[in-house]
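A favour between colleagues. Tell me how you read the following sequence-structure pair.

===
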Amino acid sequence: MYMINKSNRKASQELINEFSKFGVALIADSMGRYGAMKPYIKPIAYGRKMKGRAVTVQTYRSDNLMLHVALEMAQKGDVLVVDAGEITNAGLWGDLMTQMACIKGLNGVVTDGAVRDIEELIKSGLPIYSKSISPLGGFKSSGGSVNIRISCGGVVVLPGDIIIGDDDGVVVIPLEKAEEVLELCKSNKKKENAISKKMKQGITLFEQLGLPEQLGKLGLAIPEDEE
């Protein structure tokens, strides 16, 4: 059943900004190596950081009508996250939609489908992640849904979840666990900084991670240098 909903799940901008201080990899590690979209969800241009609240979209096959609906509904700072059913034979997002997204102040687009007009999309500066590129356009005649529970890149996304993207990919932070995940991110970043400091002091990464002991459990050891 198709539906168009408003979302009342809103993370504070302060919370979103705090997450944007961390990389996607560290955030995913802090969630037990969950939450990161599969590696086929790639940025169309590197060197950009994405952050925002998810507006979720579910399209029907090669139709982007609901994507236009979501673009109309979205507010400044939102990120459109699109479940296109991994159908990539049509670019459901293109230049004119990107122009409108920039005018409205959206912070990004993520789709498991295809996009097109890549040159213009890159020039826009808007962070966009997709599974593929296709020059063919989408139809605008079928139903779909906005602001429902979807799956994109192998991750469940609810409207209002926090979306962070960088050159490594995209991670989804469930809104109800955001505060807990943030504290884990801060703790893990401190641990990484401490490890970096010790490496500069001459203690190798191999030693700090306790890998000699792990090798020993496997009955293995690094050969000692001969004098």
